[in-house]
Amino acid sequence: xEPRQPGNKNIPNFNQLNDRxxxxxxxxxxxxxxxxxxxxxxxxxxxxxxxxxVKSPKAFKDYFEE
Length: 66
Known about the structure:
about 15% helix
């Protein structure tokens, strides 16, 4: 009897892929500090915000402004 392995047989082995970079997680804790130099509006200079593409601007601002 063959061993049962779930998944698609046509997908290459993940460890053999060479067309992407996989960043390792940081071994130390990360500290994020909000300063008085940060913009007051969460949509200003935010790379995750595209005008018209965000379905719920209020939820977006709540997420980034705490």
